Each structure stands twice: as C-alpha cells, then as structure tokens.
Amino acid sequence: MSAKHRKVNFNQPGLAVFDMDSTLIGIECIDEIAELVGRKAEVSAITEAAMRGELDFAASLKQRVAALAGIEERQFNQLFDPIPFTPGAAQLCAWLRARNWRLVIASGGFTWFAQQVADVLKIDHIVANQLEWQGGRLTGNVIEPIVDASAKAQTLTKFCREYGISPNNTIAVGDGANDLEMMAAAHLSVAFCAKPKVQEAATICLNEPDLSLLIEQFERMECHG
Q1: Which Pfam family would be a valid example here (predicted)?
Q2: In this structure, what DSSP letter does residue 37 have?
Q3: How many CB atoms lie within 10 A of CB 73?
Q4: Which of 19, 31, 148, 179 is catalytic?
Q5: What are the tens digits of pLDDT across the range 38-91?
Q6: Which domains does the chain have, with CATH numbers?
Q7: Is 19 a catalytic site residue?
C-alpha cells in the first residue's frame, strides 16, 4: 500500500463514496450478466477498455447493455447468491459508520445490484444506472441520465451539501477511469486494485484485494487527527 501526504479527520463526521463493481464487490456485474447469454468475452473487452479510459463511458455502456436484451430478471438472482462482496468491505463500512461517517455508492453499474449491496452494508444512498425492463425482460436500453464520471463527482458534492460535511472530510474509493472525477472531488482518494491511470491520481493505492487493510492506515490518521 502506498500513500501520498493527505489526511481526513475521522473524529469528525465525513462522507465516503464508493464505486461498486470491482470495489465493494468482486465482479463487474455487466460482464457476468453477459455470460448468461454467452457474450461475456465481447462485453468484458469493452468494459476493460472503458475502465482504462479508452472509450466514452456512456457510449460504451449503451453498447454493452444492448447485448443483454431479452435476459429475464429472475436470471440475475444467480449472480448475487451469495453477493460476491470484496474481502474487508463489510469491516471497512462498519468502521466508518462507527465514526459517524455517511456512506454512498456511486456506480456506473446498476440499481438492481447496488440496492442489495447497500442493504447489507448499511449504505446511506445509492446512485447507479437503471436498466429498462419490459415484461420481466431487459429491453437492451439503459434509462437516462446515465451515471458517468461527472455524475459520480456530482454525487459526492451533492451529499456533502445535504449533510453539511466539509469537502475536506471526504473519501472516494474506486478502480477505473470512470472514478477519476469523483476521486478528484474528494479530499482523499483510494485506488483499489486499480488501473494505472487511477493509481497515478490517487492519494492511497491499495493493491491487495482486501478493503479492511485501509482501516489500519485510517486509524493512524485518527490518532493524529
């Protein structure tokens, strides 16, 4: 784990905004949905390029969702039975909640998954994309507006205002290019097993797949807050 010199105060209320896919959970949901119709390789290649910042996120999302047309909602259940939480996600969220921090998911993924993650981890709010359904099946469309990099950053600033939290007491955690604006808006940013471009921009880089490893570093800040 590497870190640059920047701190937040865990003795005061704060806001932590998390990406979901490959951050709070260990999968990219859209890739796993695509596997249900035998198109995972095609969709995951687009996902990887988007996460590296090589493609426009909104355009790439629409392209990927179009490949999912016809999938039944009931098929989603097998992807989240059980929910594939990243190791340490529950511990980190509990640690932050115990210090009166607010927790938010800002995801380019989907509300169907984000709400379940939030319910278990006791996340205060979710902001994610909504899939369009018709007759219990995906239409292949995503409902506007799309949650992209700009929307993620706006989510952080919005909830700072709503909760009266100082922008200097905010954390953003993510892994892909779509998280860069959100991370730039936060006072402290964490690149979690992230793409090189994201690691270059982050305050803290954690390259071991266990979010609880952040707690030790945060506790050092707490002692000196």
Answers
A1: HAD
A2: T
A3: 13
A4: 19
A5: 999 999 999 898 888 898 999 999 999 999 999 998 899 889 999 999 999 999
A6: 2-26+84-130+140-223 (3.40.50.1000)
A7: yes
